[in-house]
Design brief:
The chain is an alpha/beta fold. It has helices spanning 16-35, 60-67, 87-101, 124-138, 191-200, 219-236, 247-256, 262-281, 300-307, 323-333, 336-339, 346-349, 361-368, 375-384, and strands spanning 4-9, 41-45, 50-54, 73-82, 107-115, 142-144, 151-157, 161-164, 168-169, 181-185, 205-212, 239-245, 286-287, 314-315, 387-391. β13, α9 (300-307) and β14 (314-315) form a beta-alpha-beta unit. The relative contact order is 0.12. Residues 185-187, 189-192, 209-211, 270, 288-290, 294-295, 297-298, 345-347 line the site of adenosine-5'-triphosphate.
Length: 392
């Protein structure tokens, strides 16, 4: 029944030149999103509005769910687009529209008209009153509530006339492409996919790096990370995933460094390698799923130690989140079921029974010196030997 969708976005922050950058990026992202939906769609910007127009047959639910993944969209409104055939005809059309859209008419409403084309013969206030009256006459169950109505009936008079009342919330955020690119440290756990989603929601493009340790971690564990990246990419757009073989470095740490510092030293090498690849690929920040106090390697002292090895800013969007808050987002974005699959992680294979919780940079750095004779070569091998997987 609807062929056209009005795309709403937060306009409050958009002034001057930024507005075009934002809108153009949003149009691009909407175009990418509808490419994945069966059918033909035209996406265009018209007088600071973005419209998606279906040319022929399409699946409404499929289109809406694709648009619900486009950051920057605050609402998706299926609209009825009418030619101007006089105000009486418009009233009739709206009465019919309400009938088609709401089988149960026991509801309150408010008409919100906007006369963007000033030569239209009826003023906005008058339109509100007259259309309201027509609806009250047609449907005894409907009542006006100007403060807190169940539905708003929006009527916008432009070259053509747009009528809508269904407002489907979008994800909000900023369109991907309006910020820089970040390097996500993506493990197979719950947290890092959520962290990637959240940073991407601010308009940041993602690359990702995964450290695996075959044969201690399996092909299935790697596939799980690919699957998670694929889910995140539904929101963030394509992700280039760098799969780094970490076994050699991990074994060296295991053999030469104090057992209780294994995780922290390992995490420092992950950060170093991630930063190296970030610099090579034009990423201007690192992203992790860390949260204060969640595990020994995420106390403030431990975070200070892992943070110390890189110069790029490290974005930790989950830093103050409880696990349950993270789970809630993971469920919402559909990474949860994949994240909880039980495949081993390289961190769990080499974990100490009593890891340090209050490491100091000085002590950790001193113990890392035990790797001095081999680490540069291993680092180079790990970086150069990485596998690159393009996630669409
Ligand atoms: P997650 O649920 O994201 O795995 P976690 O609670 O298991 O996190 P850690 O294992 O301490 O926490 O890892 C902290 C962060 O370090 C992760 O959120 C992720 O960003 C990064 N990380 C950990 N292991 C890996 C890995 N094998 N490959 C890439 N990044 C990793
Ligand atoms: Mg983990």
């Amino acid at each position: 029944m609807f062929q056209t969708f009005l795309i709403k976005y937060g306009e409050i922050f958009l002034k001057g030149k930024n507005r075009y950058v934002f809108e153009d990026a949003l149009v691009d992202q909407v175009r990418n999103a509808v490419l994945k939906v069966e059918g033909e769609f035209k996406v265009h910007k018209y007088l600071s509005r973005i419209y998606v127009e279906a040319v022929g047959e399409f699946d409404y639910d499929e289109l809406v769910s694709a648009l619900k993944k486009v950051f920057g969209i605050t609402a998706i409104c299926p609209v009825l687009v009418l030619d101007d055939e006089g105000f009486d005809k418009l009233k009739e059309e709206i009465v019919e529209y309400i009938d088609r859209t709401y089988p149960d008419k026991n509801m309150t409403f408010k008409v919100q008209s906007k006369r963007a084309r000033k030569n239209y013969p009826v003023e906005s206030m008058q339109m509100n009153a007259l259309i309201g009256e027509a609806l009250l006459d047609a449907y005894p169950g409907m009542k006006v509530d100007v403060h807190n109505p169940d539905i708003f009936v929006y009527v916008e008079v432009r070259e053509r006339i747009y009528v809508y009342s269904i407002v489907i919330p979008g994800p909000g955020g900023m369109p991907v492409g309006t910020a820089g690119k970040g390097m996500l440290l993506l493990s197979g756990g719950l947290d890092s996919p959520v962290a990637g989603y959240m940073i991407s929601k601010r308009g940041v493009r993602l690359e990702a790096v995964y450290f695996h340790a075959p044969p201690y971690t399996s092909e299935r564990a790697k596939q799980k990370v690919v699957d998670l990246a694929t889910i995140v990419a539904e929101y963030s757009g394509p992700i280039r995933l760098h799969v780094v073989n970490f076994t050699e470095i991990q074994m060296a740490i295991y053999e030469k460094c104090p057992e209780d510092e294994l995780t922290i030293i390992m995490r420092r090498y992950m950060m170093r390698i991630a930063e190296h690849i970030a610099n090579e690929t034009g990423c201007i920040g690192l992203i992790t799923g860390e949260s204060i106090g969640q595990v020994a390697s995420q106390t403030m002292q431990s975070l200070a130690c892992t943070n110390e090895v890189c110069e790029l800013p490290v974005y930790r969007p989950l830093i103050a989140f409880d696990k349950q808050d993270i789970v809630t987002i993971a469920e919402k974005i559909n990474t949860y079921e994949t994240s909880i699959l039980p495949y081993e992680d390289c961190c769990t294979t080499f974990v100490a029974e009593h890891p340090v919780t209050k490491p100091t940079v000085k002590v950790i750095a001193r113990h890392e010196e035990r790797l001095a004779d081999c680490i540069d070569e291993m680092f180079k091998t790990a970086v150069e030997g990485r596998e690159i997987i393009e996630i669409k």
